[in-house]
Amino acid sequence: MEVTEQDNILLDQFRGRMDVQDDEISRAVRRLDYYENATDEEVQVVVDRVKEKLAVINSEYLQWFEILLSFVFAVIAYMAPIWILMFQVKMRQLEMEDEVMQFQTIILMLMRIERVNVEIILEWLERYSNIFRAPITKCVNNYEAGAWEALEEMKEDVSYQPLIRIIESLQAAVEKIPITDAFDELDSERDYYREKRKESNERLISRKGMIGKVIGFAPLVCLFVGYLIVPLVFIGLTSMTTSFQTLTTT
Question: Is the pLDDT reported for residue 187 higher than 70?
Fold first, then answer.
């Protein structure tokens, strides 16, 4: 470690110089306290070792694949937040579909009960809501000030179309229309969304199966690429670089 430390001191002095001479390195070696009592043979050994290290350092340059990898990682790092947001949007859409289907089930159970009004339905929806809890809670709090206005404000706060249709049906029920008549199409809509969700789940399962197959074959592909293709490419590039260097020096 001490020898390496002394070599690093010398390398810092001559780094980047292509025309450094042995005498300059020898004088720098003798100025070091570590080699104060060294013989000429020992100094020459140090000079040769430092020259070899300098040759390696000075011949180092930025490879083309390093630039390519830096661009790839930069694009991945730049797009990662957007991809995460896209994934979260997709998951949130699935959660909204589940919650609206849950709302439809609750309404189907409550609409057949006597003396059930819109306010009771909203209270039950609030109990089992998650994503739409804030607008439903706001509507329940403002319901006494005006049922239609509270539902209209809730409709403005919500952008999910299936829930907007439920709110419009609740508004129709507020206008003294029986709740069973306001939600007469709820059964067919629920069946439609159930079939749609079933198809989405089947596509999701198929996609997960493909991802699982890719992950399963990934070790084999990495082994094949890492032990066969990459060494061959590296040997070919090294040979080509050596040939170019030989041509330029000759």
Answer: no
- Alpha carbon distances (Å) from 140 to 134, 147, 245: 10, 9, 80
pLDDT tens, position by position, 126-165 = 888 888 889 999 988 988 888 888 888 988 888 888 888 8
pLDDT of residue 168: 86
Structure tokens at 112: 């057949």
Whether residue 190 has pLDDT greater than 70: no
SS (H, E, C) the chain: CHHHHHHHHHHHHHCCCCCCCHHHHHHHHHCCHHHCCCCHHHHHHHHHHHHHHHHHHHCCCCCHHHHHHHHHHHHHHHHHHHHHHHHHHHHHHHHHHHHHHHHHHHHHHHCCCCCCCHHHHHHHHHHCCCCCHHHHHHHHHHHHHCHHHHHHHHHHHCCCHHHHHHHHHHHHHHCCCCHHHHCCCHHHHHHHHHHHHHHHHHHHHHHHHHHHHHHHHHHHHHHHHHHHHHHHHHHHHHHHHHHHHHHHHC
